[in-house]
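Thread amino acids onto this structure.
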C-alpha cells in the first residue's frame, strides 16, 4: 500500500511518501527502508521524504516518481491533515535503544493520543524480534500503557481511523483486512 504524510521532523515541516510491501523489494536510490512490526504482522516499508517549502509543491518530483512506480495516484484528490507535531524521545526498554514517538491532536473536540515504540533489530538477530516484542509489550502493559487490540497499527492509520469516524475521511480502506493492502 501507499501512505502520504506531512509532519514536523526536528521542527522542520516535511512531506513523506511511504510504500509497504509483503517482502523485501528493490526500491530507487534515496528511499529509506526498514522492516516494521505491529502486533504479529511484519512489513517491509520504504519512504521518501522532502522538506516542505512555501510556494513549492507538497510532493517532490522524487516522491511522485517513487509513488508512481508502484501505484496510479490521483494527486489532485489527496487531502492534507497536518503537519502534526511529532515529538520523539530516545529511551531504553528491555536493555535496547528505542524511540518513543507520540502524536496528540484533537478531532471532533476529542483528544486523540497515538504512540509508537520503535526498536531496531539488527540483521543477524533472526528470531529475536518475537522475544523482544513480548518483553516490550509486557513492560508497556505493566506501566499502564493501553495496547491497541486486537490489531496494532501504525499511528498514521489510527489517526485516519479517527478522522473517518468523525466523517472527515473516506470510509473504504479502513477495514482490518484492507488497511494498507500489501503489494
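Threaded sequence (183 positions):
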Amino acid at each position: 500500500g501507499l501512505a502520504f504524510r506531512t509532519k514536523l521532523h526536528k521542527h522542520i515541516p516535511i512531506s513523506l511518501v511511504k510504500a509497504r510491501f509483503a517482502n523485501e523489494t528493490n526500491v530507487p536510490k534515496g528511499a529509506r527502508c526498514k522492516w516494521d512490526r505491529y502486533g504479529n504482522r511484519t512489513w517491509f516499508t520504504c519512504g521518501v521524504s522532502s522538506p516542505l517549502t512555501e510556494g513549492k509543491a507538497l510532493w517532490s518530483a522524487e516522491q511522485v516518481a517513487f509513488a508512481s512506480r508502484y501505484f496510479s495516484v490521483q494527486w489532485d484528490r489527496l487531502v492534507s491533515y497536518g503537519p502534526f507535531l511529532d515529538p520523539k524521545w530516545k529511551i531504553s526498554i528491555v536493555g535496547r535503544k528505542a524511540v518513543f514517538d507520540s502524536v496528540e491532536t484533537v478531532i471532533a473536540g476529542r483528544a486523540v493520543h497515538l504512540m509508537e515504540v520503535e526498536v531496531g533489530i539488527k540483521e543477524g538477530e533472526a528470531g529475536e524480534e518475537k522475544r523482544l516484542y513480548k518483553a516490550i509489550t509486557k513492560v508497556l502493559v505493566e506501566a499502564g500503557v493501553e495496547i491497541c487490540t486486537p490489531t496494532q497499527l501504525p499511528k498514521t492509520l489510527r489517526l485516519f481511523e479517527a478522522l473517518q469516524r468523525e466523517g472527515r475521511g473516506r470510509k473504504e480502506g479502513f477495514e482490518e483486512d484492507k488497511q494498507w493492502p500489501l503489494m
